[in-house]
Specification:
GO molecular function, one term: symporter activity
Low-confidence stretches: 1-25, 345-352
Subcellular location: Cell membrane; Endomembrane system
Main location: membrane
Keywords: Amino-acid transport, Auxin signaling pathway, Cell membrane, Membrane, Symport, Transmembrane, Transmembrane helix, Transport
Distance between the termini: 39 Å
Number of strands: 0
Largest sheet: none
Pfam family, one: Aa_trans
Order of helices and strands: HHHHHHHHHHHHHHH
Structural class: mainly alpha
Number of helices: 15
Mean pLDDT: 82
Helix content: over 70%
């Protein structure tokens, strides 16, 4: 019996269970990676991750932060604005660290990390639906926001022109996406993402500098506007959601990091984290001045889009809306670079 046990042990060591399956799966994954170009080029620089993260995170929602402040008040508003920045930076750091937490393997997509944590099937069921909600929901928001921004630009530049329906501007936005969607990887949209990141900084700067130029309004008040306690509570939670959503953008963090080269001496997390820090500094420069100065200037009368409260000069407001339109063109491309379905479906071509 002892010799039998020794033989069994030796057999286990020489031929571990499922070894062929593991090797076959590795080969299959390699073929899938070659088939999917989204992160095939692992030669991105650290600053690529900066403007990719800025483009994915900063959105037209920044223009609604002053209104959110009016529903929260000075104390809770500033606290939540900074606290959300810290919490989301910490959670993004966790994602960066987990990208290569298993030696010799990179989790390039969320569902791969989910499968490692929860199992092959359960990981898919937990991660993919939530990621799709973010991806599809974000895509719809960007389509509508992009079309609305282009319409506002048109109406501001040519107020006497014949009105054009919003749906036509959404179609114009969609046409641009149809062309850009042929760019297969994050590296291929790096130029688009850079322009979008610059645009976000531009319209945010326009929002708060124009507010300063306009000056504090007469009889400005900072008390919360609500008819009753119920409305006050709903307004508070709505504002809380606005602040939390403003720091969205984690849904493509792993895909962004997947484009960065990695070596034992310098893992990808070093360059990625450097880019994230720069991105978050720029995000703070975009968000905090708009939220605080916008609320300070207009008080509780601020509109849910601060550009509407500014009104004039019309040429500057038109430029800001155009910048928003250009920015969300890049944002749409960033959130659309998740390819969990392609990964799963294309695996059938290489065996299961």
């Amino acid at each position: 019996m002892a010799s039998l046990g020794t033989e069994s042990s030796n057999a286990f060591k020489s031929n571990p269970p499922h070894q062929e399956t593991i090797e076959g799966k590795s080969e299959r994954e390699k073929k899938i990676e070659e088939w999917l170009p989204i992160n095939a080029d692992r030669n991105a620089k650290w600053w690529y991750s900066s403007f990719h993260n800025i483009t994915a995170m900063v959105g037209a929602g920044v223009l609604g932060l002053p209104h959110a402040m009016s529903q929260l008040g000075w104390g809770p508003g500033v606290t939540l604005l900074i606290l959300s920045w810290i919490i989301t930076l910490y959670t993004l750091w966790q994602m960066v660290e987990m990208h290569e937490m298993v030696p010799g393997k990179r989790f390039d997509r969320y569902h791969e990390l989910g499968q490692h944590a929860f199992g092959e099937k359960l990981g898919l069921y937990i991660v993919v639906p939530q990621q799709l909600i973010v991806e599809v929901g974000g895509g719809i928001v960007y389509m509508v926001t992009g079309g609305a921004s282009l319409k506002k630009f048109h109406d501001t530049v040519c107020p006497s022109c014949k009105p054009i329906k919003l749906s036509f501007f959404i179609m114009i936005f969609a046409s641009a996406q149809f062309v850009l969607s042929h760019l297969p990887s994050f590296n291929s949209i790096s130029g688009v993402s850079l322009v979008a990141a610059v645009m976000s900084l531009c319209y945010s700067t326009i929002a708060w500098t124009a507010s300063v130029h306009k000056g504090t309004q007469e009889n400005v008040q900072y008390t919360k506007k609500a008819a009753d306690t119920t409305e006050l509570v709903f307004n508070f939670f709505n504002a809380l959601g606005t602040v939390a959503f403003a720091y969205a953008g984690h849904s493509v963090v792993l895909e962004i990091q997947a484009t960065i080269p990695s070596t034992p001496e310098k893992p990808s997390k070093v360059s990625m984290w450097k880019g994230v820090i720069v991105a978050y500094i720029i995000v703070a420069l975009c968000y905090w001045p708009v939220a605080i100065i916008g609320y300070w200037i207009f008080g509780n009368e601020v509109n849910d889009n601060i550009l509407i409260s500014l009104e004039k000069p019309s040429w500057l407001i038109a430029m800001a809306n155009l910048f928003v339109g250009f920015h969300v063109i890049g944002s749409y491309q960033c959130v659309g670079k998740e390819n969990e379905f392609q990964t799963k479906f294309n695996s059938s071509f290489f065996g299961s």
